[in-house]
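#help-structures
NK: newbie question, is this the right format to request a structure? protein is Mediator of RNA polymerase II transcription subunit 14
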Amino acid sequence: MDTYSQVAGPSNGNLTSKSGIAPEIVMNGVHEPTLEELERELPYVGDGQIHLGELVSRTVQTIYAELTELAETMPNMSDANRKRTLAEWVVKTKKQVVKLYAVVRWARDAGVVQKAMNVTAFLMDQNAQFEEAINRLKSAKDGLDPARMRNHDLLTSLDVLTTGSYRRLPTIIKQWIVPPDPLTDEEVANTLAEVEHAMRYRLRMIDVIPLEMSKYRISDGRSFFTAPHLFEASLCVRGAKKDDGWFFVDVEFLFTIGGDVTSMQDFPRKPVGPVKRHIADEADARLAFYLPVPENLNPPPGVEIPSPRKLPEGVIDAPLVRVFNFLQMMSMSYQLEILWFQAERLRSLGWADYLKVEMTNHRRTLTLSYWIRKPPPSNQRVNIPRLGGTLTISIVKSETSSSPVSKAHPPHRSAKAQVLAELQERSKLGERKRPSDTVEHLRFEVKWEPQRVALGMSIPFEAVTLPEGELRVDPDNLDVESLLRKVLFRHSVAILSTYQQQLQHATHTIAFAYPTAVKLISDDVSTHLRVHLCADEVVVVSIDMRTGRLGIRDTGDLAASGRAPRFQTITEYLNINPPLLADFLLRLRLNTITDLAEQKAEYLGLQCYRQRNIPQEDLQRFGPTAKGYLFIQLSMFSANYLVLVITDLEFRYALIEVKRQEGKVIDTLGIEDLGWIDVRRMRSGRTQMELNQAPLSRKRKAEDANDEEIIPEPGSPASFKLESQVLRELYAYCCARVAYTKVEHQLKSHSIPSSYVKPAAAGGLPPGLGRLQSSLINAIPALCVKSSDLLAGAEGVEAAMPNIRIIPLHWWADQRMEVVTCVKLKYVQQPLGKRAGNSSVIRPSKRIIYDANEAVVSFLSEDVDKCVNEFLEEWAKVSKMVVIAREVAQMASEKNWGDVRLLSFDLQTVEFAYAPDYSVSITCGNHLFLDGPYELYFSRPRVGNEQSRYNPHTEVEPFMRNILRHGSLGPSLHRLVSLLRETLPIVLVLQEIQDKAEQSNDNVDTFAKSAEWFRVLYGDFKHALDFRLMKGSRVLVLDASHSLFPAAEDAKSKDSKPINGLLVLHPIPDFSQLVSETLKDLASQKTIGTVHPVDTGLICDGSAVTLIGKALYERVLQKLKQHNTTSFSLSS
């Protein structure tokens, strides 16, 4: 600095200062730059810095907006809240102002800091240059290490040894030092003329010229070939001989960079330096592809010269075609690289987070992905694409003539051009020869693939379709930003148009259906939606074409700036889930409507809530058109609410019943019942009010179709005008309907549809309940349920008529409510027995009333919440008894069973005789037990002795009971009666055998193994006699040790090894002989009927089993006694 001050001082006569311009500094005759010049050469660094004015402006606007909001909201606050709010705002604002003051103080040194940052950047650049120089020197050192020394000059060495001095100079030194004689201007002109003549001859007579660069000129010893919009190349020939080929001289690419012109210097049209050398080497290699290798070529030791390439027979070399294909690819690749550079430059100018640039490895495809979105948080599930779309620019080959073309590539040859090309080949090559290479037609393909669900909106295909030729690469204006902005603008217009269609034509946005509600305003630069909410309130919805983010703002002045934070919050929320734009616009309208309704309810003194803690799945029951709710709680029934459902068109009114859900951390209310109220019918004076259900009855649908629905104009204030009188009547009517809906709740819980009929069509109350009436009962419709729905899955559904009435009682009184269910039977069955009485109306139990004249069964339930379950339980019992009584009454005539007759029937129990003096009583037990719903009691009604009333079928009761549990009740009952009749002789003979064995103290046991299989087990537990019922009322009597299935018996005899003779039954000794002797003894009796002896027993009629069974039992018993005695003697 001392030297600088001394040189720059006023004593130096070489330094002058005029007009305030810094004086020039001259030191030792060399110009030295001034300090200002040095500072201007420093690079400018602006990363992480913002303008102080912008920061101050933002802070002041925020403070003003908060003050305005406080001025609007504080008058409605209490004094304490105002003071606390104002104090909090002052503290917060003071902190912001102090921070701003500190920033302003720091900004005083901003120039020094900026200069320091610039100097730091300059030093970093210098450091990088030093490091690069070091690396270059090291590379040069590494490259010189393997360098070889030249061979020794032996001739010069001999001259020095013999003569003492040099006699000659090396030829290479002469070539380097001694300049050749220059050519004269005339010689140069003649040489160039000869070269031009040789080139002109070759181009006209020998070489095939691609039509795409057929525009050429020859001057200055070179041929200049021009391919429009691609390149202009200059070539020259090596000589006039046949084997002398072409060599590359220069090239200029024909394109113009658009957009930011500062990038022109980075991409010169004429390549220089290494790029030009690379192009020249590649072009010369292609031009000399089939040229012979020079003979005087001396390669270095160890390097082998490749053999020259040979053309196939009939093929002529076409070097100009090859060089055209190469330069065409170079030109188009160069243009694609320029577009890639421009895209990367866009990323550095603020597009980095929203634009992704990709280039394939072969550098022929450039892909731009725009509107990149950050991945959402793991706990957020928003199905929005991660990008808005892709713009792909590719270099492709033109395959078909129908493909779209542009100025960026040569057009396809027309028919005329193709003929000219063929004529050229024939004239230069001959008829039967062809060129070695053909022209490759390349073109730029620009493909736009937008995401049709970008921002969560499904866009029609035609909305994102650009006209043909709209997207193309123009070599006269290479600008990737203009291509990208065309796509972004079109995509933004399509998305906003979709939003407009959704708001104006969708069902849930009917509020904006009038023409001026939503307008799409678009110009050449930007586009946005202008949404008219109400009155003078207008919001503007736009899309930032750079980021793809939605923006919402109002059109108010600075006085409404207090809404800016609110709109900013909503904008952030919308960009997380953009499809909620319509919901936000509807919510503004919804809040106003809710405020009006809430004001009316509070005026009437009703307790109302805007929200209740009801699960979302329950709220969906109000329908898809519900936009908002107002819950008015009934003071008499805390679990019931009158709900005002706000839709796009009008109010809808519903009556609900809620229940607190157990096991939840938060107190949650679940909707147990819901019914819609038709206010139009109520206001017109009708006494009937129907609760909408799903599905509705046909009669209900027909009546609703005849009602005229007066739908006001969408958005009209009259559609939401709620009178205080209407709200008061709705509240009173809901209180009267709560009791009635409790019955309907039971049906809904069982998924049973129901309908309402007029009280006159219902037929009134059943007999016995006429005293339970009220003057208001005719004002309430009767509940009608289809028997096929209510009795679905229950037995006996065929016994009931189609319609079943359910009538709540005592809803008008304070006493406990009851429900009576009336079922009309399809046939009338008079009660029988002692409990039937003389009246046509009987009451077998407290909950059942039966009118025999009308065939109506009434079921009375004292618990409203369980009335359906109690009815189904009682009906399951009664219906079975009705079906059994009917079937038994018809058996005598249908089956010709004269001794089968009904003895007793009272809807609870059916008793009938299946044989003379033998009867069975069937009762439905509790169906929850595992042994089935039927209980059978066997008896003998005509015998007076209690001991003689024993029916031997009692032992078979478990097996007989199971018969009724399988299949339909009617066929099962017929099978039961048939089995009872056919097995009666068997059980009687077993009973006689058991009685006789007890009298003689014989250890004999009789029991049933199934409904058709009975066994007599003798006292030694080794021998048994089986009685099996067969078809045709025949009985098989056989030795129990033998099976009816021979295969099973053989396997049993082979595999089973009895231990101590106790595991299996033993064959009865001489059983066949015993059977024969028994039949001989009974042969004289005609009552035994037809008997068929078999290997191990006999088959007889059921009527003869008594005689044969007793006789065979006696003989077997005697035989076993003899056998046991003989065995004991032998063992002794």
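mod (FA): yep, format's fine, and the tokens are attached above. Residues 110-144 form the longest helix (35 residues).
NK: thank you!
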